[in-house]
Write a structure and sequence with these properties.
The protein is built from three helices and no strands. It is mostly helical. The protein starts with a helix and ends with a helix.
Length: 60
C-alpha cells in the first residue's frame, strides 16, 4: 500500500468515526475545514507549487 493510499484510508476511517460521534454537519465542517485551513496557511509560492504538481499529476 502506498503512502498516499494509507493517508486516504485513514481519512476515510476518521470521517466515518466523526459521522458516528458527531452530527453530520459538524463532521462535514471538520472534514472540509481542516484541508482548507491547511491550504490557506501556505504562502503563495507553496500554493503555486502545489497547483503545478497537482496539474501535472492529472495529465495537463
Amino acid at each position: 500500500m502506498s503512502r498516499n493510499a494509507k493517508i486516504a484510508a485513514g481519512g476515510v476511517a476518521v470521517g466515518l468515526i466523526l459521522l458516528i460521534w458527531l452530527p453530520w454537519w459538524v463532521a462535514l465542517l471538520i472534514v472540509l475545514g481542516v484541508p482548507t485551513a491547511a491550504y490557506l496557511m501556505l504562502d503563495p509560492s507553496q500554493r503555486r507549487r502545489l497547483r503545478r504538481v497537482s496539474r501535472r499529476e492529472i495529465g495537463r
